[in-house]
Amino acid sequence: MGAGSRGVLGVVGTAADGVEKLRTGLVEPAVALGWQVAVTLTPTAGRWLRADGELDRLESLTGLPVRDTPRLPSEPRPHPVADCHVVAPASADYVAKLATGIADNQALTQVGEAIGTIGVPVVLFPGVNAAHARHPAWSGHIAALRAAGVRLVYGPHVWPLLEPREGPADRELPWQAVLAELPGGAPA
Ligand SMILES: Cc1cc2nc3c(=O)[nH]c(=O)nc-3n(C[C@H](O)[C@H](O)[C@H](O)COP(=O)(O)O)c2cc1C
Description:
The chain is an alpha/beta fold. The protein has eight helices and five strands. It has helices spanning about 20-35, 45-50, 55-60, 90-100, 105-115, 130-135, 140-145, 175-180; strands at about 5-15, 35-40, 85-90, 120-125, 150. The protein has a five-stranded parallel β-sheet with strand order 2-1-3-4-5, with helices on both faces. Strand 1, helix 1 and strand 2 form a beta-alpha-beta unit. Helix 1 packs parallel to helix 3 (about 55-60) and helix 4 (about 90-100) packs across helix 7 (about 140-145). The structure holds flavin mononucleotide. Flavin mononucleotide binds next to helix 2 and helix 4.
């Protein structure tokens, strides 16, 4: 697949509920909007999506390998440089690591670097519950990401926080709100 008319969108999925819909909820609509999409998963999300065949479907759709491990130094970069990154859903674990600068997997490395790169937007949807958000470190993580300019899709208007195991396992993620935060937005 050639470069999209909007540029290259780095899509990151983590091991949180709803990541199994990454293709239909986010990647297909982004491609339709004109993005060239390059998908990266955390190692755990990679295991989940490989197990249900979604990883192969994402590769067919994007024409690029799905990354869930870092390359060897001797290997070429498998993805083009992204003009924008979007993390959806971001687990509580991923948010904590990103906010504190931890970069111990490919999905964290590229977004952490983008946060420190001038002119590269980062959109992030925390796929968390009320218990995650009551952790004493949580508000600091959110504040740190906001201060860094990360466009957070977060708050009761987009994702009311439910107690653990309160919502349905297949609760729809706010994909439309995520797409609307991309440069150029998305039709409502
Ligand atoms: C079935 C299942 C669903 C989960 N859903 C969530 C979730 O919605 N949000 C979250 O923050 N963690 C969730 N977790 C916990 C994360 O998977 C766990 O913290 C994991 O270490 C995150 O890895 P990652 O951040 O590297 O993707 C879930 C775990 C399982 C097994």
